[in-house]
Design a protein that fits this description.
Strand order of the largest sheet: 3-5-4-10-7-9-8-6
Number of domains: 2
Radius of gyration: 23 Å
Number of strands: 10
Structural class: alpha+beta
Distance between the termini: 69 Å
Helix content: 25-40%
Order of helices and strands: HEEHHEHEEHHEEHEEHHE
Shape: globular
CATH class of the largest domain: Alpha Beta
């Protein structure tokens, strides 16, 4: 009986002719979207990326969740590994920053690396294979619960800040956008960022290109959480900021705020 029903089922490649329709529609298109629609969506994403991106660098986000009882061992091994990448001039890798989360998911570490575009990323990771850096990374592995990575580009209107030592805390705000909303997001924040700049200069802003897609990261630095609260409240008094926040809630599916402390070897402190 089941075999008989299955033989009667509509197959993904079957064509349906709708009454009065001018064209046929495949079930494959209904279930998964037509190849033309998928290509159009991918082309739109790439076009938006070209419009909003600075285009000079690729920033790799590496997120490590560490076993609680091995945090100190991890920190030592991470310093050896990441400073080794930084000091190897053949790789062409620059460290943007290295942090530990203090509010958000605990025992989680964020590392942001800068590459000379995709060609620089390809070159670096080919050289890392079978090098002493691989051995240094192996020293990290016993401390890890999980790890993830993402390749991002900078927004053209907000290049990443150079290395500096100012003290205090960092806040990484991550927004999961609705697909197709990146260009609108850029327009909204290009205007709204000027209100925030009157009180605090952003450290950087990136959007994802590989890994978790449709994701945006903003990085801020404050003296402390009380200062953060005051600066955010002051921004609400300026024209344009309320509109930016309101638009943000419409464009994003969800958002996270992670408070970070820089590791001793982080270029951004």
């Amino acid at each position: 009986m089941l075999a008989h029903i299955a033989s009667k089922a509509i197959r993904p490649t079957q064509t349906i002719i709708l009454p009065g329709a001018q064209r046929t529609i495949s079930v494959q298109s209904i279930l998964h979207g037509s190849p033309e629609a998928r290509q159009a969506g991918e082309a739109e994403l790439q076009q938006h990326s070209r419009i909003v991106a600075r285009g000079k660098y690729i920033h790799g986000f590496e997120i490590h969740k560490v076993k609680p009882d091995q945090v100190e061992e991890y920190k030592k091994a991470a310093e050896v590994y990441y400073t080794g990448l930084r000091d190897d001039k053949d790789l062409g890798i620059k460290l943007t920053g290295n942090w530990e989360a203090v509010v958000g998911e605990q025992d989680t570490f964020y590392h942001v690396l800068e590459y000379e575009n995709y060609a620089g990323f390809d070159k670096a990771w080919k050289k890392i294979q079978n090098s002493e850096h691989t051995q240094a990374f192996q020293a990290l592995r016993p401390s890890l619960l999980s790890r993830s990575s993402q390749l991002t580009q900078e927004f053209a209107f907000l290049p990443t800040a150079p290395p500096h030592v100012e003290g205090g805390i960092f806040e990484l705000r991550t927004y999961q956008l609705k697909p197709g909303k990146l260009l609108e997001w850029e327009h909204t924040w290009r205007r709204g960022i000027e209100a925030r700049r009157k009180f605090v200069e952003p450290v950087g802003a990136w959007f994802s290109q590989a890994g978790r897609l449709h994701q945006v990261h903003h990085l801020w630095q404050y003296k402390d959480l009380h200062t953060r609260k005051e600066m955010r409240e002051q921004a609400w008094q300026l024209d344009g900021w309320a509109d930016t926040v309101g638009k943000t809630s419409q464009l994003a599916k969800y958002m996270d705020s992670i408070v970070l402390l820089p590791l001793p070897f982080s270029p951004l402190k």
